[in-house]
Amino acid sequence: MRTVLLCVTVFLSTLTLCAQNNIRQVDFKNFTYPLSGPLLGHDGLKWLGNPKDGYSKKKPIHLVDGSDLKKLPSAAVDGHGNPQFEGFTLQSISFADVTGDGNEDAIVVLLYQTGGTQNTHYVYIYSFESGKSNLIAYCHTGDRGYSGLYKVYSKRGQLVFELLDPKRMQGDCCSSGFVRTRYAWHDGRFEVAGRPEYAELKGP
Predict the structure, then answer these.
(1) Which of 124, 137, 143, 153 lies at 20 to 30 Å from 97 by C-alpha?
(2) Cα separation, 96 vs 103, whole angstroms
């Protein structure tokens, strides 16, 4: 009986290893992400995870099918409940080499929702080593018009953030422009490469 159980265990372990041969096969929809610092009040991009930043660690985010939303007490409107949710949802996953080692990395974007109007994006960068994902950096952006996330992507081996321009805000929610900042991987971290670029948001 023990021999059978051992064989089954080895077989399942082999399947797991075979199932993840590259970063694209990692199931980021059902995944655990680290978290630190305050969830609200962000007005810009900040890299997290460094003990020197003074942020304390929080309970990790456990996504199940791309979400960890929790229902909040409903507010009655015209006698009907108005369901609200708080928590994280998976917004996007993209793949590109942003460290210059010739291998694809994953750029994972999560959205934190408060149940109200405020929200914040968290961006996680994972490499792939020894058959598993490896977190190399993560950050939060601002809140909506206060340097909220517009786009994040890779171009020419660099990590590029486009954040809504707070100087061109049109109410707390919006801005008519964005600021593009490029980051290069150097000595185990992302560093600003070049000057910020300012651009207008194009209409529909």
Answers:
(1) 143
(2) 8
Pair 173, 142: CB distance under 8 Å: no
Point out which residues pair with 46 in neighbouring strands: 140
Q: Which amino acid is residue 72, in one-letter code?
A: L
Among positive and negative, which fits the CA dihedral 16, 24, 21, 158? negative
Question: pTM here?
Answer: 0.85
Q: Label residue 41 exposed, middle or buried (CB < 10 Å: 0-12, 13-18, 19+).
A: exposed
Strand partners, 36: 57
Q: What is the pLDDT of residues 146-203, one digit of tens each?
A: 889 999 999 999 999 999 998 887 877 888 899 999 999 999 999 999 999 999 987 6
Q: What distance lies between CA 170 and its chain's CA centroid? A: 25
Query: Residues 72, 81: contact at Cβ < 8 Å?
Result: no
Residue 94 phi, psi (nearest 5): -135, 160
Non-local (6+) Cβ contacts of 22 within 8 A are 104, 128
7 three-state secondary structure: helix
Query: Reading across the β-sheet that carries 119-129, which strands appear in turn?
Result: 46-48, 132-140, 119-129, 105-113, 80-96, 70-77
DSSP string, 123-166: EEEEEEETTEEEEEEEEE--BTTBT-EEEEEEETTEEEEEEE-G
